Amino acid sequence: MLKVSGVHTFYGAIEALKGVDIEIGAGEIVSLIGANGAGKSTLLMTICGSPRARMGRITFEGQDITQMPTYELVRLGIAQSPEGRRIFPRMSVLENLQMGSITAKPGSFANELERVLTLFPRLKERISQRAGTMSGGEQQMLAIGRALMSQPRLLLLDEPSLGLAPLVVKQIFQAVKDINREQKMTVFMVEQNAFHALKLAHRGYVMVNGKVTMSGTGAELLANEEVRSAYLEGGH
Amino acid sequence: MTAISMSSPRAIAWPAILKEAAMTAFVALLLTIPLVGLRTVDRPTGLGLETRWNEVAAAVGLVFLGRLGLCLIREGHAVTVLVLAAAATAAGFFIAMPTEALRVILIGGGAVIAIRAILAIRTGRSKLSQAERDKRMDHIAAQVQHASRWLGPIAVVVALAFPFTPLADRQLLDIGILLLTYIMLGWGLNIVVGLAGLLDLGYVAFYAVGAYSYALLAHYFGFSFWVCLPLAGFLAAMSGVLLGFPVLRLRGDYFAIVTLGFGEIIRIILINWYQFTGGPNGISGIPRPSFFGIADFTRTPAEGTAAFHEMFGLEFSPLHRIIFLYYLILVLALVVNLFTMRVRKLPLGRAWEALREDDIACASLGINRTNMKLAAFAIAAMFGGFAGSFFATRQGFISPESFTFIESAIILAIVVLGGMGSQIGVVVATLLVIGLPEAFRELADYRMLTFGMGMVLIMLWRPRGLLAHRDPTILLHGRSKGGSGGPAAGTAAAGGQGIAGGSAK
């Protein structure tokens, strides 16, 4: 579905991605794990077109999207829940969700809203509250819900567990699992929380210093000695 | 700062209180010597200095007494202070004072202290805590916003009826026109600053483009106002797009600086393109508007045109034109307001608000940021252009002098003080920023001083603007009418919990 081949991305003169190849098939949950500064988020942002890849190609269902402006991607069916959540703090939860459906087919709003609110019942309770006054976990739910409102086929999640309590992380990952199972949604997730991310994922990639060093099924990677010592130290 | 219980008046610690009051008086002295004590005057020999030590002494004395009063309230003698403060206010009202300024300080200061004393007596505390005050103010702001639903139409009706009331003399109508012009500009700028969140420091440029469009088109081609009004709006919108293209890739402070530059560029072009714009001399003899091209407002109109007063069988009065101008700007301003109210409920307006909140998230949701910002810029510029050509036809004379940076600053101040994005806030802020200096004309030199003091007070009490309260534009279907009060109550409560709510932008 999404294919990243030989992508190099630079911040000025610094090479953040040094030739990355990744493939995500339809219906999969794929996790990308790695340490701080390995280039995980950069890869996700490069897929979204800012910063642009200086070399290499990114295709979505056969269509080259390497040079496509960010806002066009949503129309193709790629939705993104950006790092740091980036919800609209002064708008109500409902308005936030509505912003998510701004590119969706007219008339789909009520249906999608229903679906998102079923997925995250907490949002229903908070529906007319100002988004900025919610807790971090609720905001993360809102960010994912907002991305889902555009009826995407591929959902990109950037560090959904960042700064959240373990219990909330569990809820969020469970929701991701549900979306994948019930709506056949393809999910590509960038995570530091390697244990949860790999447990959830069908397949995983490990990134070190701007390069993919390892790949395999989630279970394989979880069992891998190197991965265990580097990312699962301390055990969860 | 701490709230002290005052159930039992304690023995007064006079030395400490006197010291505190003296300190405050000293600060007041430092401030008033240059601001009040010294005044430059024109003398035949050049610029001279005049001193006004009496006023300084009076001001410092009053500050001393005021601080003393506040201290005494804190120490539990609110009743005594209330009586004294009320007496001072009354004295200001009824007894002739040597200067007008002294009177205002006496009345204003006395009233503030009296209110404080009443608060202390009622709540049993000398002072509300910051969070508590914010919460109350937010509550009031929310109420005003809610009230604006019926207050707005009433205000419009009052504005419509105003010229027919016996109050409406030439001077008041002129002030009304001035206020409405700024309200219109404020509403126009509110689209860019309040909705789209782009800090535009050069809004006056579009005002100037509109004014000069009309003036030049009328001057060179003899076009009438009614032809020029849409043209001026169009040209201003074009200049907005022209500026927008290069500028909109910038963000935040950089964006603000470039718009500031643009405002100056327009003004400097107007000054230096002498042959075309008349340079610093400006353009005079700009035609007055006719009654929709049908009739003229002069006593004896030129051949072929009818006279307004004859057409309607009225006695000729120069007021007719003024009243017409008043209605014209009222309608123009209301158009801007209706546009904004409507657009907030449309995807375009929503996208603007989302841009203000977080523009990176907008891109990830499929919003074309450049187009949205350009649209905001162009539309606001168009309204600025309308206001500009109205200004030109009202004044009959324009020069680059009228389009200096201070105008941009005033319009921006109106938007920010009103609470960004709040329509009714713009009206309230205009009444304060433009109306107060007009009302205090008799204060002469102290006008700007009161203006500055007002700004400082707003900054202290309402740093996010007077009516910074935002109502959601959609509510969930199937909610009862009673439930619709929910969101506002919800936000107020959230603000009170002191999470991010109260001050989060």
Automatic annotation (TrEMBL), chain A:
It comes from the Bacteria. InterPro entries: AAA+_ATPase, ABC_branched_ATPase_LivF/BraG, ABC_transporter-like_ATP-bd, ABC_transporter-like_CS, BCAA_Transport_ATP-bd_LivF, P-loop_NTPase. The keyword Hydrolase applies. Pfam families: ABC_tran. CDD domains: ABC_TM1139_LivF_branched. Keywords: Amino-acid transport, ATP-binding, Hydrolase, Nucleotide-binding, Transport. It is an enzyme of class 3 (hydrolase). One of its GO terms (biological process) is L-amino acid transport. One of its GO terms (molecular function) is branched-chain amino acid transmembrane transporter activity. PROSITE patterns: ABC_TRANSPORTER_1, ABC_TRANSPORTER_2. Its EC number is 3.6.3.-. The keyword Transport applies. Residues 2-234 form the ABC transporter domain. Belongs to the ABC transporter superfamily. This is Leucine//isoleucine/valine ABC transporter,ATPase component. It comes from Azospirillum baldaniorum.
TrEMBL record, chain B:
Keywords: Cell membrane, Membrane, Transmembrane, Transmembrane helix. It comes from the Bacteria. InterPro entries: ABC_transp_permease, LivHM_N, LivM-like. Residues 17-75 form the High-affinity branched-chain amino acid transport system permease LivHM N-terminal domain. The keyword Transmembrane applies. It is found in: Cell membrane. The chain crosses the membrane at residues 12-36, 56-73, 78-95, 101-119, 140-163, 175-197, 204-223, 229-248, 255-274, 322-340, 374-393, 405-434, 446-463. PANTHER family: HIGH-AFFINITY BRANCHED-CHAIN AMINO ACID TRANSPORT SYSTEM PERMEASE, HIGH-AFFINITY BRANCHED-CHAIN AMINO ACID TRANSPORT SYSTEM PERMEASE PROTEIN LIVM. This is Branched-chain amino acid ABC transporter permease. It comes from Azospirillum brasilense. The lineage of its organism: Bacteria, Pseudomonadati, Pseudomonadota, Alphaproteobacteria, Rhodospirillales.
